[in-house]
Amino acid sequence: MHKFTVSISREIEADTAEEAALFLYQELSRGPIPDRYSVVDETNAATEVKLDRQKADEFASIDHTADPGNW
User: So which domain of life are we looking at (predicted)?
Assistant: First the structure.
């Protein structure tokens, strides 16, 4: 297995960094799950990924920890 750093980016107006993080948390807890991500691999190669919502929802509904390929 490889390691990746996956992040989302939002421009948020706030008074403090903590408040900005709280606004993002609030947005993520109420709104639709983001479908665009920035991904950086072990070699620091960066990629922008846009997920197909239907495929992502299907993937998320499966318990991948039960897959022997993940052991």
Answer: Bacteria
Kindly state the tokens that stand for 64: 């991948």
Q: How far is the C-alpha of 25 from the C-alpha of 58, rounded, in Å?
A: 24
33-43 tens-digit pLDDT: 899 999 999 99
Query: Which regions in the chain score pLDDT beneath 50?
Result: none
Reported in sequence order, the residue ranges of the chain that DSSP labels E, i.e. its strands, are 5-7, 36-40, 46-50
CA–CA separation, 9 and 56 (whole Å): 19
pTM confidence score: 0.72
Sequence-separated (6 or more) residues with CB below 8 Å from residue 39? 4, 5, 6, 46, 47, 48, 49
Question: Rounded to an integer, what distance in angstroms lies between the CA atom of residue 51 and that of residue 6?
Answer: 13
